[in-house]
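Email to the structure team, subject: Integron integrase model.

Hi all, the expression group asked for a predicted structure before they design truncation constructs. Nothing fancy, just the C-alpha cells so they can compare against earlier work. One-line instruction: predict Integron integrase, return C-alpha cells.
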Amino acid sequence: MKSPFLTSIHEFMLVKHYARSTIQTYLYWIVQFIRFNNNIHPAKLNSHNVERFLTYLTVNKNVSASTQSLALNALVFLYREFLKSPLDIDMNFKHSKNQRKLPVVLPKTEIIELFQAIPTQSRLPFQLMYGSGLRLMETVRLRVKDIDFNYGALQIWDSKGGKNRIVTLARELAEPLKAQIGLVQHVHTQNKKNTNYIGVSIPNRLAQKFPSAPQSLEWQFLFPSNHLCQYGLERGMFRYALTGVWSRHSDGTRTARSFRLKYNSNLYPCFRARSKWRLESSIRNLTSFPRITDTLPPFGSVETNSSNVNFM
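Reply from the structure team: attached below.
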C-alpha cells in the first residue's frame, strides 16, 4: 500500500481488530471518495462532499441500497473514528431504493442435480454447507482442530459479527472428513520440507503465545489451496483456504447462501413435529422427552411432511 494515509488507516483498523474483509471494503470506498473529489485529502473535505459522493453513487452508478450503505459506513468511520471530525447527522443525499429479494431455497431435485454436477474431490465443502448450515467463509476457514468426531459437531470461530458457535455434523460426513484430514496431513508434510514455509496464519496474537501452532497439524486449514502464497500483511509463505470452490461450480443464479437457507428449511418441519410431539406427550403426562439431537433425522433425509420425522 503506497499511500501513507491509507497505510495509517489500515494499521489503525488492525489495532481496532476489524475483520480483514471490512478493512478491504472500507479502504476501497475511501479511495473511491478521494478520487471522486480529485484526490483532495479527506481532512479538507466535509459533509457536503460526502453528500455529493453518495448521491453520485445512486444517480450515476445506480448502486443498490446495501452498496450505498457500505460506502456511507466507510466514510462515517473515516471521519468519526480516524479523523475525529464526525459528519453531520442530517446529511441530505439521494438514497438508493431498497428492493427486497426473495431468498432462493433450492428444491430437493435441484440439490441432487447440483451435487451430481460437482466433482467428487470438491463436493465435501458443499456437503458441509448443506448438512451443517455453514456460511461460505465459515467453510473455507475450517481447521483440523475444529472437527469434533466424538460429539458429532463443528466449532465455528470468529464468524459473522465476531461470534463463535457449535453446529451439528452429519454422520455421513465423518468418513469423508477423516479422509480429508489424511490429505491435509500429507500436504502438510510436504510443506514442511520447504525451507520458506513458516506455517498457516494464526488469528490475533496466538502465534506469539503458541509459536509452534502455525506448523502443527491441528491448526492447518481443512481445505488448503493448491499452492503456497505469501500472506498480505506478513512475510513468509502461508497456505490459504480454498476460496474458489463455489465460484467454479455456481451458475450465477444460486449462491452459497442457498445451501444455508435449504438447511434451515429442512430443520423447520423437524422442529415443528417435535413441538407437536411434546404437546401430545404433555397431555398424556409423559415425563421423558427426546433430546433436541434426537429429533434431527440423518443427513439429507428430512422430508417436508412432519409425520415422516423419526424421533427414535
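The chain has two domains: 4-82, 101-312. The two ends are 59 Å apart (CA to CA). Ping us if the truncation boundaries need rechecking.
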